[in-house]
Amino acid sequence: MFLVWLLAVPLAGAIASLAASPKAAKAIAAITSIVALIGYAGLLFINRGGIDWNWIAPWGIRFHLAGDGLALFLLGLSTVVFAVAVFSSDRESGRAYYFWLLVLEFSVVGLFAAVDLFVFYVFWEVLLIPVFFLLTGWSGEKGKKAAMKWLVMNLVGSFFMLVGVIALAVIPQQHGGGPAF
Asked: What is the C-alpha to C-alpha distance for residues 47 and 176, in angstroms, rounded to an integer?
């Protein structure tokens, strides 16, 4: 329940901040951050349950997220860091800034809570998009050059990561087992 909250709240806040006026975007992002912190507190103290849905059954891929162990610590750290980022940013940053920041929070929460390797890979790829736009939009000329280098480096790294994910799915099946996700 609270893990769904941690995923849905930043995504809903991102959409709301994009649809709001530029002055209201920071307020929406701040409220979203506070609600995400409350959701994390609920996850920490009330219910550590996760999500386990059959997603792509023929390949044995499940949409499996859980908030336990190290993931619980990283989820808390990320919700605090994103709240600090929202509250310390300029009001003049604009709607797009808060949109990308909240989409980044959504993808980081999904990345840290992922139990299935394929879900981890999907959230990793989603994470690359807001980071690129945050780097290009709010970091100056040197930041734009760095963002392009970062994008190329991560696309190459993501290709090798995809090859590894596919290998973990194919090799065990060739030896009579299921995928190693």
From this structure: 37
8 Å CB contact between 121 and 165? yes
The span from the CA of 61 to the CA of 78, in Å, is 26
Q: Tokens for 123?
A: 């959230």
Pull the structure tokens for residue 16.
């709301």
- The pTM for the full model equals 0.88
Give pLDDT, residue 177: 64
**Residues 1, 62: Cα–Cα separation, whole Å:** 17
Interatomic CA distance for residues 172 and 99, integer angstroms: 41
Instruction: Dump pLDDT digits (tens) for 53-106.
Output: 888 777 778 888 888 888 899 999 999 999 999 999 887 778 999 999 999 999
Contact 135, 104 (CB under 8 A): no
